[in-house]
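User: quick one, fold this
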Amino acid sequence: SSVRGGTVLDVGCGPHPTMPVGRSRLVGVDINAEYVRAYANTTCDSRSERSDRKRLGIVASADRLPFPDSYFDESRCFGLFHHLPAAVAQAATREMVRCVRPGGVVSIIDNVWPRSAWLRPAAWLIRRLDRGEWVRSEAELRELVSSAVSGRFSDERITYTLNGLELLLLQGRKVGAGAGSHELRVEPSAG
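Assistant:
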């Protein structure tokens, strides 16, 4: 459910995008200046697509995004929340929703603990050794994100790689608010 040709905010962008963007204009935000420099100084929109357009990279914290309300068509975050304590992750969720126009999509993808350490010991060990201090269960991540704004996100648990690593995709579509309203509300994204 990615936008086609719109402006996409990539929160916690790292040195390169992790999801395809097609013809969208991509603006990456990260607190690591070296990552932002690498992100902005390449013309590759994804590992399989090439473009002459450069991405814009901005050094900023996910919980205090330097953009006006409703500026982006989509905001996305891949693999950041397990590096953030709960209060910062909730603030980042609110900021991602705030920065998206009504009808825009908010996508949060993050690592979660395997359902069973016994059935997926390699995946459990990899998560245990991860630099992120806040790897959460599926229920914990869902509750953390959902409690940050009004409404509900759709969710999908995904197992990837041969060692059974698991992640959770949470998506919501921003619901338009009345003039002067500061309510941040999402509904499950269709698709």
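User: anything notable?
Assistant: The mean pLDDT is 86.
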